[in-house]
Specification:
The protein is α/β, with parallel strands linked by helices and 160 residues long. Helices cover 31% and strands 16% of the residues. It has one domain (8-159): Rossmann fold (3-Layer(aba) Sandwich). It has a five-stranded mixed β-sheet with strand order 1-2-3-5-4, covered by helices on one side.
Length: 160
């Protein structure tokens, strides 16, 4: 199927026959994530689909120094720009309000690379000393979450 995540009709056409929704959209320099999450939530509610696994960013995990803040709001994040993290945070906040069984996989720096299947993960925070995780291992971890309820309604920090 070809479509635009910013279009409600396209999102619904893609989602209507699914058991689980996986979203690996990025911010695309605009509000694509916040627009598309509304379309996904609406379509999932209409078609009674509960499970969503999506990719976020480590910036929206809790800061270890101050758990009331996101990592991107502290010096724990090395990114200069917070625009993308702010967009991901809006998605997280919207999912928290929903009735969906969501999981947000939050990798740190994400270079291309294979799935080695050896990585660390932690609920709501980035594991200590985490610097990077490959695209392959991020995909592998996401795949393990499709039928797991270990991190339902949670963010998961992912790194080597």
């Amino acid at each position: 199927l070809t479509g635009n995540a910013r279009n409600q009709h396209d999102a619904e056409a893609l989602i209507k026959d699914c058991d689980i929704v996986v979203s690996c959209l990025n911010t695309d320099g605009d509000d694509t994530l916040t627009v598309s999450i509304e379309h996904m939530i609406n379509a999932m509610n209409v078609h009674r689909i509960k499970r969503l696994v999506t990719i976020g960013t480590a910036g929206i995990l809790n800061a270890r120094q101050n758990p009331a803040l996101y990592r991107f709001e502290t010096n724990e994040s090395k990114r200069r720009s917070t625009r993308a993290a702010q967009e991901h945070a809006r998605v997280y906040e919207r999912l928290r309000e929903s009735d969906l069984d969501w999981t947000i996989v939050c990798p740190t720096y994400l270079p291309d690379g294979p799935a080695l299947k050896t990585y660390r993960f932690e609920r709501d925070v980035l594991p200590l000393g985490g610097k990077e995780i490959s695209t392959g291992d991020t995909a592998h971890f996401l795949f393990t979450q499709l039928e797991s309820d270990q991190f339902v309604k949670a963010r998961v920090g992912l790194t080597y």
